[in-house]
């Protein structure tokens, strides 16, 4: 995988497979196409948007319709409430209505006021107003 962001990451081959160092989980993770997108989004949240690392959770489990699911990234506000839910897909996966609906379903559990879906090429972010049952597409990720 070539990308000008590669210099921002540490890589290691483990048992013949490429891994990427995850600064939040403090370990090397198998480098899949989706993990590449997740690590790039994480880097942007921390280094460009200045989201505090201590308020970010990766691959958190949740139960939805009696099924065990995982959210890719959840950012919490300073009171511990979910602030932003991010769903990451591999670059070749188009960001379509199904992906937005998946993130929205996960957010029924978290109730974060912001959701984001990305494949690393296209990123869409939405503000969710639960009181008025209204969703607004944003031009960029929210400031923390």
Describe the structure.
- With 144 residues, this protein is an alpha+beta fold.
- The chain has a single domain, classed as tt1808, chain A, CATH 3.90.1570.30.
- The chain is built from two helices and nine strands; from the N terminus they run βββαβββαβββ.
- The strands form two sheets. It has a six-stranded mixed β-sheet, with helices on both faces. A three-stranded antiparallel β-sheet has the order 1-2-3, covered by helices on one side.
- β2 and β3 form a beta hairpin.
- The model has no long low-confidence stretch (mean pLDDT 90).
CATH topology: tt1808, chain A
User: Would you tell me the structural class of the helices and strands?
Assistant: alpha+beta
How many individual β-strands?
9
User: What is the name of the CATH class?
Assistant: Alpha Beta
Q: Helices and strands, in N-to-C order?
A: EEEHEEEHEEE
Overall outline: globular
> Average pLDDT, to the nearest integer?
90
Regions with pLDDT < 50 over 5+ consecutive residues? none
Beta-strand percentage?
35-45%
CATH architecture: Alpha-Beta Complex
Helix content: 10-25%
Number of domains: 1
Q: Strands across the major sheet, in which order?
A: 4-5-6-7-8-9
**Rg estimate, integer Å:** 15 Å
| N→C terminal distance | 30 Å
Could you describe the largest sheet, including whether it forms a barrel? 6 strands, mixed
Summed up, the helix count is 2
């Amino acid at each position: 995988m070539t990308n000008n962001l590669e210099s921002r990451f540490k890589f290691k081959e483990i048992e013949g497979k490429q891994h990427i160092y995850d600064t939040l989980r403090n370990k090397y993770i198998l480098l899949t196409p989706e993990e590449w997108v997740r690590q790039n989004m994480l880097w942007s949240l921390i280094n460009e948007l200045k989201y505090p690392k201590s308020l970010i959770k990766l691959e958190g489990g949740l139960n939805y319709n009696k099924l065990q699911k995982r959210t890719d990234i959840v950012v919490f506000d300073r009171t511990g409430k979910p602030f932003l839910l991010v769903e990451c897909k591999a670059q070749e996966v188009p960001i379509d209505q199904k992906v937005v609906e998946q993130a929205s379903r996960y957010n029924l559990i978290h109730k974060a006021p912001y959701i984001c879906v990305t494949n690393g090429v296209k990123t869409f972010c939405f503000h969710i107003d639960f009181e008025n049952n209204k969703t607004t597409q944003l031009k960029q990720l929210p400031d923390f």
